[in-house]
């Protein structure tokens, strides 16, 4: 019985360390939320509040090289609402890039987490009714789901 309790405890700790969370002002945002910064005031909001932003991942090409399948994706953040100054997007699983830096372009990629993208400093936000695009090459065909993690107006 004791060994079962220890195993359950270890699995619980492992699961809790795998769940996404991030500081947001005085709060901690968790899965199903993102951090919204409006005029310097940060607060966690439900992901459904970000419905004015679309994220599209389009597989453009797939090929096999040295017995490994790769897919090139073109991705877009589409802003259906008001002007955005900055956005960070997280993936549900780490990306398995073909190479390191050369397999992702036109966006900042967090190489520590392997699962976060942010608009680059040279991108002056995304105006309402406009989109921002980037690309990446991954092993396999399965593109991870992407969610808003941080949004600055």
Automatic annotation (TrEMBL):
GO terms for molecular function: carbohydrate binding; extracellular matrix structural constituent. The keyword Methyltransferase does not apply. InterPro entries: CBM_49, Dd_Spore_Germination_Stalk. Transmembrane segments: none annotated. GO terms for cellular component: extracellular matrix. Residues 1-19 form the signal peptide. Keywords: Signal. Residues 53-141 form the Carbohydrate binding domain. GO terms for biological process: extracellular matrix organization. This is Carbohydrate binding domain-containing protein. It comes from Polysphondylium violaceum.
